[in-house]
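Quick one, T. Sequence first:
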Amino acid sequence: MKWYAIERYINTMKSILSGIILIALYLLLVLAPLGVLLIEPVPAGSGFWWDLSLAMGFAGMGMLGVQFLLTARFRRASAPFGIDIIYFFHRYLAVFAFGLIVLHCLIIRVDNPSAIGTLNPLEADGYMAMGLLAMALFTLVIASSLWRKPLRIPYDGWRQAHTLFTAVGFVLAIGHIKGVGYYIDTPLKQSLWTAFTAFWVLLILYVRLVKPLRMLRAPYRVMNVVKERGDTWTLTVAADHHSGLRFEPGQFAWLTLRASPYALREHPFSISSSAVGADPLEFTIKELGDFTRTIKDARPGELVYLDGPYGAFSIDRVEASSCVFIAGGVGIAPIMSMLRTLADRGDRRPLLLIYANNHWEKVIFREELEELKTRLSLRVVHVLFKPHAGWQGESGLVTADLLSRVLPGNRRELEYFVCGPKPMNKAVEHALESLHIPLRQVRTELFDLV
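Structure tokens:
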């Protein structure tokens, strides 16, 4: 067995072990509230449905508490999975937790309606009013998260409301639980539940107060903005009197421009520059929304704040004799970081880039890719969806037939990096699967984190 294969196996086992430990920790944190409730003495139950509804309520609250941990962006915790996977996990687990809380309310409403009383928070007892208001806020949070894009809710406003409503709803729900007092009516249980609550409150304070303060103390400044093809711009920033950011090629960072880190107006962008001599940093950004359309207006000297690096989409995370990169449009940005880094390191492994675009004039970094072919053992295959007259290259979509034509004979031994629009990513993954490429050798960057 080749040494790179042995090292890859060891790294994979380490990543799997770390992932298992983190999943076990997640389950422990989610189940902790239920465990506290079972400490003797246990109050006499009011029937199966009553106890089931309370268990669902406490489990839902435990899961909502862990949601703050999932979005705290602890790099070591997210490393085995990638922050993009963590965010998708956060989104769907939030829906599941909300479903448990809804069932908690519905079961009590049907089984023991007198326990809830009026649904008007202005007329209800204080602790019930807190529960009703918490449910209203959680409903707004879930609905706006699931349908933000169809409803065309601006990202920055949604993010601020999402954070505020979630935190206030969580505090109100804790007040409701303490007001009800059922299952937490002993000093020990009160103390344990208070400690559990304090942990999440401190975590929120760390994420919303301490982390932004650290970003304020390590600012960056805009050096320049360069126009690329395809309504795309490369923003270059440099560390302002600090050592800067060290990252793995292919990673990304949250960027705040024209605002304080406390304003919650940050956006995730891939770093497109080489990881060798990492300062200054370059971000290649396509005009796709309200914020990205303003990148071209950035002026030299403007302050920028970064939170990163994040992501597991990096060639430094694998040991392979050869790699294949499949990019679509601005999805070339993290792949460009990897290619530039490999070139700066003098890496001579065989590399293949399959780069899909609509038009030839939209191909970002077209000239530099040709130059990189002289510094790397790199083959570039351009695929145009709308080729111009006389085009001699590949055209249409990146399909299994196309991949079968351009991939080398040892394609099942290679590592694959896929980055592009979501429909393209899915299509390429299915195409690679149809060619019997092992799933463990395919890494896909997920741009849509929110």
